[in-house]
Amino acid sequence: MSALLSAGLDEGTAGFVAALDANIREGALAEVTGDLARLTGRPTTPLVEGLRLVA
User: Fold this and answer.
1) Number of compact structural domains in the chain
2) Distances from the Cα of 38 to the Cαs of 31, 32, 33, 43, 44, in angstroms?
3) How far apart are CA 49 and CA 15, in angstroms?
4) Considering the entire predicted model, what is its pTM?
5) Which domain holds residue 46?
6) How far apart are the C-alpha atoms of 9 and 19, rounded to whole Å?
7) 42-53 pLDDT, tens per residue?
């Protein structure tokens, strides 16, 4: 978290980013439920494919 603070992030934002990173590392954000596709009524695009579209 010290690197985030050194980069200029405030304490709250740095804590949020650090916690998010820890959750990703632990696999907490890897669950795929299909909820977003059901809510929007269309299939979702994997992140890497979406990034390729804008690159």
Assistant:
1) 1
2) 15, 12, 10, 8, 9
3) 29
4) 0.58
5) 2-54
6) 14
7) 999 988 898 998
Tokens of 11: 């304490």
CA distances from 19 to 14, 24, 26, 48, 51 (A): 9, 9, 11, 22, 23
Encoded tokens for 41? 């009524």
Q: Supply 21's token pair.
A: 């990173």
- Which amino acid does the sequence have at 18? A
Residues 6+ apart with CB under 8 A from 14: 1, 4, 5
Within its chain, how far is the Cα of 12 from the centroid? 17
Cβ atoms of residues 9 and 17 within 8 Å: yes
- Specify the DSSP element, H or E, that contains 16: helix 11-25
pLDDT confidence tier of residue 4, bands split at 50, 70 and 90: very high
